[in-house]
Amino acid sequence: MASKSLTAFFILYSFLGYIPSFGVILRTTDKIVWANEFQPIELTCLIESISTNNPRIEWKKIKNGIPSYVYFQNKISGDLEHRAQLIQPANLLILNTSRSDTAEYRCEVAAIDDHKHFDEILISLAVRVKPVVPRCSVPLAVTVGTSSELRCLENEGFPASQYRWFRNNEELPQDPKSSLKFINSTYTINSDTGGLKFRRVRKEDAGEYFCQAKNDAGHAECPAQLMEVYDVDIVGIFLKVLAALAGFIIVMVGICHAHKHGCFSSGKDHTGTNYKLSAQENGVDYTEADEGHFRHKSSFII
């Protein structure tokens, strides 16, 4: 009997053109949203049911647990002030996304004339960032049979980049055993860290290497660098010769410096000794007489 009365109630209001709402109800098309940096993205806040003509609509950004207003009192505010707009009735359109926009966004609708006068919905936004040119480290020369490692890294991309290595413009397979061309190679590639390790370098491993960092937003590559492989350690020999030459120069400079400061002079005593006889000895003046003159220098007794 009660169900028939309720049905008659709805039929009556239908004929009058009015069906009462029991409260505001929200939904969204996606609760987890991905966007590429610098591209537009729309966060949907759909009002499925409402009776209030002018509901209060607010958007809040929640980052690191701290909320801040995005849309408040009918205007965009905060760091989205000049980069976003409200699309009626309650969708938020971000025109130029930035990596700083990665956060949770909460749509809140208050309808005072509804039985359930408030509802909210939470949307998570993650902004993908294209990798920058990675920093690559390739050894200039290695010796056959030795181990070696090539490195590649970039830390701007989001999500974190995956790495691939190329030699002479040909991609190295992740597993060298999967290719007949590389089946004898001893390298391993870590696609998460960007490391390319050779357990034993072969002559065939010589070539130009470059690395590519890639994620869902795009990719970037470092310039190619040449790695040469020698049968003997040419670089090591060169460095040893250079070290020996440097040591020789240091020794010679030391010798010259010591010689300049008299460290190699004779030990003889150069103190001058006056061997000149006294002008007078035993009372006799031996000074030569003037030429052509004879003078007695002492008295004689006859």
Task: Give a concise summary.
The chain crosses the membrane at residues 6-26, 234-255. By secondary structure, this protein is mainly β. It has helices spanning 2-15, 234-260; strands at 25-27, 32-36, 41-43, 46-49, 56-63, 66-72, 75-76, 84-87, 91-94, 103-110, 118-128, 135-137, 141-143, 148-153, 162-167, 170-171, 187-190, 195-198, 207-215, 218-221, 225-230, 280-281, 284-285.
Gyration radius, to the nearest Å? 48 Å
Extract low-pLDDT stretches: 1-18, 267-302
CATH topology of the domain at 19-128: Immunoglobulin-like
| CATH level-two architecture of the domain at 19-128 | Sandwich
Helical fraction equals 10-25%
Domain Ig-like: 20-124, 131-227
GO molecular function: cell-cell adhesion mediator activity; integrin binding; protein heterodimerization activity; protein homodimerization activity
Transmembrane segments: 6-26, 234-255
Pfam families: Ig_3 (PF13927)
Task: Describe the 3D structure.
It is a single chain. This protein has 302 residues and is mainly β. Among the domains are: 19-128, Sandwich (Immunoglobulin-like); 135-230, Sandwich (Immunoglobulin-like), CATH 2.60.40.10. Helix content is 14%, strand content 36%. It is built from 2 helices and 23 strands. β15 (162-167) and β16 (170-171) form a beta hairpin. The radius of gyration is 48 Å and the shape is elongated. It is a single-pass type I membrane protein. It is found in: Cell junction, Tight junction; Cell membrane. Residues 20-124, 131-227 form the Ig-like domain.
List the helices and strands and how they pair.
Blueprint: H1 2-15, E1 25-27, E2 32-36, E3 41-43, E4 46-49, E5 56-63, E6 66-72, E7 75-76, E8 84-87, E9 91-94, E10 103-110, E11 118-128, E12 135-137, E13 141-143, E14 148-153, E15 162-167, E16 170-171, E17 187-190, E18 195-198, E19 207-215, E20 218-221, E21 225-230, H2 234-260, E22 280-281, E23 284-285
